Amino acid sequence: MIRYGLTLFVPTGNVLIPGLFAAERGGFLVGRAAWDFIQGNFTVHARADLLGMLLNGKTAQALIREVDFGVPVRVLVYDSPDARIPVIEINTLFVGKNAPPLPELLPLYLPAVADLDLLL
């Protein structure tokens, strides 16, 4: 299970894995729709709330203006969909020519996707 985390200004350096976007004037988004909206509209909805969980598995809430969008998105691996604490954070992904298709967001948020066959 892969989840994507956003680094917070407040408290400094905490990482929030968003689960729900709540607009300041009503309306809610969850899942991929929430993620895409957050990434594309964070400057427009500074007072909107994000609800999700921290790396320690605790539930958290933050204003969208408390997210540091200048810091790369964190790519986290969990044991299962119910797991609340990540097993590991991925920083680089190496894939071979015959690798299965990657999840759509994964190559967007990793520093590099290299062809493993070139390293052998």
Main attributes of the structure:
3 helices, 7-stranded antiparallel beta sheet, 9 strands, 2 domains, 120 residues, globular, alpha+beta
Q: What is the CA-atom radius of gyration, in angstroms? A: 16 Å
Distance between the termini: 28 Å
What's the helix-strand series?
Answer: EEEHEEEEEHEH
Overall outline: globular
Number of E-state strands: 9
Can you tell me about this structure?
The protein has 120 residues and is α+β, with helices and mostly antiparallel strands. It has two domains: 2-77, no CATH class; 91-119, no CATH class. The protein has helices spanning 31-41, 106-109, 116-119; strands at 2-7, 15-22, 28-30, 49-54, 59-63, 74-77, 88-90, 93-95, 113-115. The strands form two sheets. Strands 1, 2, 3, 4, 5, 6 and 7 form a seven-stranded antiparallel beta sheet that branches. The longest helix is centred in the first third of the chain and has 11 residues, at 31-41.
